[in-house]
């Protein structure tokens, strides 16, 4: 009943939240003399803090309306080009200058781990000037009616394969964090079937390929608990009146609670500073609002997908052991021969430890040496692997270069294997 109590509490707070919002506008109104006093600003700040900590954050927008191509600003149009019950495929269609050579087609597989695909806004933005970008927009499981059936790990892999078929020849795929495993599985399944539409390259970023290596707090939790414990304690039914009423899910608010508890001090300090900026009225709070509007927007995962991922990836380590199954058939990573592989890790990653993603280089034994590369980005944590200034400056250019070099329309040539920022081998 915990999910139902959560919903009930949210509904019960609605009138208080609305009243707080109205009073905040009154205290912040410049026509109100109190708004120019420390007392007025403190009241407005307190009311905003109350409203923000009790609201439900809706799905954010990408908001990418333009990009720069060849020093020219061009418009970008977001469109759904493929759709299934649990996922839409978004295309960021650019108004490319006439006569310009086509850019590589990249499919970004966003993590289905609690946050929306918009968490990768910075990833998309950095790649848009150099690539034709598509991204998986996973749908909140609580919004999918029970009549649409279930969605498990095998379905996830099938969705990736279907999208690669839809996008066609010479598509490159990027998996950020959690989807590194199903994307690698999809590539192996396609290669074993001699599928001509298998991706030209596969970039895995901060993903849990082998969580036995440098286990983090997240990995250790999965090892300390049984699968039954997870089923009994974190799987709940979607409450009425949501469209997915009675669907068993792993609620997004539980995942968010776990992430925030890992860095609770940092979040408390950030909110304290936010409050002080509001009182001082110094214009800084907008950065805080933008970040937490994104960070606090969460979605539910289907129970079957979540439990299978916990069991196969974090408990049994089935992929690196060669024991992972897809539709009743063992997945053979050695079948991957024609898909170039780039793995990217962050030196300070506290979610996917250093070496966990690089393990893909070990299990994909038949990828030629000149079609593989590993890069370790110094001084970044998990989110710095796919977002932020170092991503834009150091990681994104390497991804673009790797993709271009391994386009099946291009002539193959040897690539340096970057082991760590500033050093190659």
UniProtKB/TrEMBL annotation:
Domain PHB de-polymerase C-terminal residues, every copy: 206-406
InterPro entries associated with the record: AB_hydrolase_fold (IPR029058), PHA/PHB_synthase (IPR051321), PHB_depo_C (IPR009656), PHB_depoly_PhaZ (IPR010915)
Superkingdom per UniProt: Bacteria
Entry-linked Pfam families: PHB_depo_C (PF06850)
NCBIfam families per UniProt: PHB_depoly_PhaZ
Protein name: Polyhydroxyalkanoate depolymerase
Species the sequence originates in: Rhizobium phaseoli
Lineage: Bacteria, Pseudomonadati, Pseudomonadota, Alphaproteobacteria, Hyphomicrobiales
